[in-house]
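Reagents: none. Just compute today. Phospholipid phosphatase-related protein type 1.
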Amino acid sequence: FITPLVLYCVLAATPTAIIFIGEISMYFIKSTRESLIAQEKTILTGECCYLNPLLRRIIRFTGVFAFGLFATDIFVNAGQVVTGHLTPYFLTVCKPNYTSTDCQAHHQFINNGNICTGDLEVIEKARRSFPSKHAALSIYSALYATMYITSTIKTKSSRLAKPVLCLGTLCTAFLTGLNRVSEYRNHCSDV
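Predicted 3D structure written out:
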């Protein structure tokens, strides 16, 4: 079982580390550094607040990534609250009291209160299955890292490095979704 804290740390750290490594390595390559400095100087409007082009690019890319990560989290939370789709393990944590439902006589909808006897906080989490937060955040993180790698990192020596790195990040996100389904935390349609 992967704890949410570990997953969130990995989701935030992986693209950030790729951005740091990519920007620092591009900055120290002389031909790329000169083109970056020329590109970034056109953005400056005043002499009072000069930022190193390396620092400015790192802040820009990580800022856009963080904004997208928080926006994805907010929209996934809203979707989970609105849909209220139950997880596969809902009955295990709900521990319903079947004797108080009076469902032996008629086949009808039971609406006489809450019949769950389990922990309310765990039951609330078990009511939020669609869309899967872990899968959505991991695919956003992998897609952002893949787009960053393909659009900014230029390699002349190795043609296989970029596709392998992109495929590795996307496969990691895919494995996160498979992990959620295999641990019975989400349905296949939720991921």
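The helical segments are 4-28, 30-41, 53-83, 90-94, 120-126, 133-152, 161-182.
Action item: order primers for follow-up constructs.
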